[in-house]
Amino acid sequence: MEFATLILIIITACVCLYHFILNKQSYFKRLKIPHAQSMPLLGHMAPFVFRRLSAAENIRRIYNLFPDAKYFGFYEFRTPIYVIRDPELINTIAIKNFDNFCDHRKFVDDEVDPIFSRNLFNLNGDHWRKIRKLLSPTFTSGKMKIMFKLMCECAENFVDFLVADSGNIGKTYDMKDVLSRYSNDVIATCAFGISVNSFKHPNNEFFLLAKDTVKFISNPITMLKMMINKSFPLLGKLFRIQLLTSRIRSFFKEIIADTVKTRDEQKIIRPDMIHLMMEKRDKDDDLTIDIDEMTAHAFVFLFAGFDSISSAMCFLAHEIGINFDVQNKIRAEINEILTQTNDKPTYEAINQMKYLDAVINETLRLYPLVFALDRVCVKEFQLPPATPDGEPITLKPGDHIWFPLSALHYDPKYYSQPNKFDPDRFLNGEMDNSVYMPFGIGPRICIANRFALLNLKIMIFYLLWHCDLEPDTKTRIPMVFAKNTIFILPEGGFWLKMRARKSKVPVT
Fold this sequence. Notes:
The protein is an alpha+beta fold. Helices cover 50% and strands 8% of the residues. The protein has 19 helices and nine strands. The strands form three sheets. It has a four-stranded mixed beta sheet. The protein has a three-stranded antiparallel beta sheet with strand order 3-9-8. The longest helix has 32 residues, at 291-322.
């Protein structure tokens, strides 16, 4: 090879490397937007990648560097993200100008994974709007009242097991295990129309595969796959990176197909999302619903219900277990409800429990299910200057936005003593939804937030009705967050000691 040719190749390679890495990561510098120093290729994800900080702690660290900025720059690997920290601007983007930011960033390629990519979270544009409109009736107040009875039956199985297993002596439990079983039973009956008791039959196929699915999605390899699909979509498409194994996809597709076939043959009608999709399937219009799409939506409902809601339950049980004053106040409220309803709690009665609401709200403030909410710009939009001496910025279609959920929830500007678990803060004032959004904000708020909240209330109602909670030697106080997952989870798991109560309702 001639020397001149070699030099040309080296120069070309350097130019390509600069464009691929360094030029991309000078994006915010060119726009004069506040940002912290980042690492080539890894961007601001380096502390998380090297497990020095959890994902939530990492975003809070940078958020706190710019207290006077309306937004700042963050590099998720090579992808520049506008992180919005001003509540008024969050409302403007998420609600007032929703049509400019109606999409999420895809983490699954439509061609590579044609089933999982069709879930509601991954859908965008008009298709998302149609499916959202179709599924929304699943979670109305009327449907929640019907599901209430099903949830209570699962809760009774749950506490019957705990009372018999722990007795008056008490026993220490991995709360993630027992609450995942309860969540599994609720999802199975409310979403899939399948009656299972994962306490009486701990090795039922539905629970075991749901558990395997969550382990698979939460493991570091799958996290890496998800990050590649998000940050390097061409690479993900080239190597056809799928999040789910064929075994998992086949199992849930078979469940949905069998459920639909049985309902068709026996004319079964249940108040759930499968029935709504079946109704739409039978109509001749522009929205086609097939078994693959039914499977995608039902699967995400399963994952969110089995894993995300059970994690929220674990955080809730943890705070109640280590704060006896909070536990006693909730139990007093429970006893009042039991007296009013003659030991037969109703949907209306449980939803009137103001202190329980406050405890749940405070738990979701401290432990939101995700550390940030994302949006993708689909129409050109002008951001105001990030700082008083800055210039307006015009966002173009394809630009990415984050709302730093965890950082806002821990900002002392909005919450005094933000690291303290204090339910009272939600008793005496209205929540500002631009700085409190555990289920999201605007039209893309979690479609199942009512379902999740009711599930949390029923679980803790029945648990404290029948059991006492207390910390164990395995209980981590204070809690330390895991650094190997994008989800907000503790190191060492959730451990509490529970014992059957000698008297459910004190004699007055």
